[in-house]
Amino acid sequence: MEPVVTSCGGCGKAIRIRRPDVERRRECPACGAAVSVPRPDRGPDAAPRGEPRRRAMLGAAGLAELTLLLMAAAPLAAWCAVAWSTVATASPPWAGEIRLQPTALHVAPVEATRDLASARELALKALEPARRAMRVVSAVRQGLATPARGDEIADAPVVAPGPTPPVLVPPDFGAPSAREFAASSPIEAERRFLIRDDSGRQVVARLHGCHEGKAVLMLPDGRLGLPSMLVPTDEPFRAATADEVAEDLARGPFEGFNVHRTDHYLILHQGEDDSFARTNGVLLEDLHGRLLAAFRKHDVTVHEAEFPLVAVIFKSEEDFRNHRPVAPDVQAYYEIYSNRIFLYEQPSGRRGGPEVDALLRPQMTAHEGTHQILQNIGVQPRLAEWPLWLVEGLAEYCSAPASRKGQPAWDGLGQINNLHMATLREIEDPVSLSMRGQDAQTRSLFREPGQPLVEAMIRRTELTPTEYALAWAITHYLAMERSDDFTRFLRVMADAPPLEPRSPDDHVRTFRATFGDDLGKLDRTVHAYLNRLTKRKGYDPMPYYAVQFEQPLANGMVRRAAMVSQSPQLIRQWIDEMSNPAVGVPSWQATPFPSRARAQLAVQGWMQSN
User: Fold this and answer.
1) Which of 76, 212, 333, 551: CA 20 to 30 A from 503?
2) How many of the other CB atoms lie within 10 Å of CB of 478?
């Protein structure tokens, strides 16, 4: 038989059939549709052998006819699919909540279709509702998703209970992955998406940041989450109210906690006695108000916190550490993803130096509260890459401890931090260095020879207790002596986009652009400024502490050591250096004395008596 030429019923492409007499299934090389071979003995509408006889729909007219058929069938197919899934899952928790609305399909009239490519595109659009419905069925049957209200499908839960929120990967709902969306879509300030929160509710989340395929969403309660898929929506973003957040917390991870409310805070605490929660509530509200006033005074744009601020107070240190394992010296912390601060009321175990611990308690609340407030009033964008000296220096600048009528207290913004002053003076004191068995390396270990101290601090990604004091000193000098430059610097930092990486070199360039290139000169200026602070009102030298350290060894012996220091930070650093995690639990005690000589006598007497 001679070769014949026919047309594909899917795309209309002309196809030459060399052996029409050979019975086999043929497909269009362009679109993959089955190709019928017209033969004189079977008629133009004959189908290949073994297939039912049907009328071939060829070219644009046939494709348009298929389009109209699918338009009519798609809503019914979607309804049947979800209804079948509901019956098959034996009354799941979301049964009765399905509100499937037929998707409106706006298809141009067939007469307006000028070419086959446009007709094919219209057909694919008509198919999309049915495709989406089948994906929903697959996801629901696997227990990986639930149908959303309306005709949209919500994403997987975005939950951020800890410092790094989990990423849950749902099946493909037809929405782009977060990476694909971030790579292909421009960032818009109010880009919004549908997600499901950890309680299973569909909520609207707001794009917080996006960089190199990684997107972070802001949830209505102020938490941040990492989605694996993005479903855009035009619905407005609405911040949760204090009542809604309190209700969710009471049903979730903090069930059984009591809630103490202030104007801006929800303070969760354990037990009926709320005196500790009230004391911290007063401190945090005072801190919030003073920070807003200070920034507005210097023309830094700020706003009230958009979300209720949450502080969680555990009754005991054991409960605090069971909630999230942290380093032994961490007494409180702020979680950037959950937007909550955590602390505890009662220390556990044998802990020495009760006077020092008591003095640090208000400081720790103010320190972590400053982190939380700055990232909620528009000063420090959450997840923006700020240098660590500035992050911790601002927190220390706002959390100077004090003692009023013998009771630990918070001393307000910008006061002289006597704890840090003791540390900074002690690292200059050769007598103190020799007593600890150290030398000038205490202050030079973290910088290169000849490198200015300020530049070394700008490049730091971790801080020791000594470096916390240095971060406070730099911040205090810049805020007090170069307030206009510091305000301009903060405005620049406030514009840093979330998630955009910045290197130590970037931080140094930004700092030099505001404060000048001669960082060695700045070192000397800060040092002279600290010397002047010792003569100002508000400077109250710390007492000298006689520190006694003991740790049982494996052979039944006890290791003992002692030191004298004015600096609680250096005392803790020394304790950490002395402690051996492979043997018994160490204990220590710090007793204050008015002079170094008396503290030394106490240490010598204790060592000789043992």
Assistant:
1) 333
2) 24
Of the pLDDT bands very low, low, confident and very high (cuts 50, 70, 90), residue 12 is low
Tokens encoding 495: 């514009």
Beta partners for residue 545, in sequence order? 565, 592
Sign of CA dihedral 275, 276, 279, 281: negative
Within 10 angstroms of residue 293's Cβ, the number of other Cβ atoms is: 11
Task: Give the separation between CA 572 and CA 588, rounded to whole angstroms.
Answer: 10
Burial pattern 524-536, b for ≥16 Cβ within 10 A else e, equals: eebeebbeebeee
- Of 572 and 82, the structure prediction assigns the larger pLDDT to 572
Tell me whether residue 168 is exposed, middle or buried, using C-beta atoms within 10 angstroms of its C-beta: 0 to 12, 13 to 18, 19 or more: middle
Cβ-contact 363, 410 below 8 angstroms: yes
The whole-model pTM stands at: 0.68
The pLDDT of residue 215 is 86
Mean pLDDT across 20-44 = 66
Give dist(CA 367, CA 356) in Å, integer: 16
- Block residue for tokens 């990423």: 167
- Write the burial class of residue 115 (CB in 10 Å: 0-12 exposed, 13-18 middle, 19+ buried): exposed
Distance CA 29, CA 8 (A): 9
Check if the beta carbon of residue 473 is closer than 8 Å to that of residue 394: no
Q: Is 320 exposed, middle or buried (0-12, 13-18, 19+ CB in 10 A)?
A: buried
Under CATH, domain 255-377 is a member of which superfamily?
Answer: Collagenase ColT, N-terminal domain (3.40.30.160)
Q: How does pLDDT run across 130-177, given as a tens digit for each residue? A: 344 334 333 333 333 333 333 332 333 333 334 555 332 333 344 455
Give the DSSP per-residue string, 457-482.
Answer: HHH-SS--HHHHHHHHHHHHHHHHHS
Domain assignments of the chain as residue spans, ordered by start:
1-56, 60-141, 255-377, 380-540, 544-609
| pLDDT, position 556 | 85
One-letter amino acid at 545 equals Y
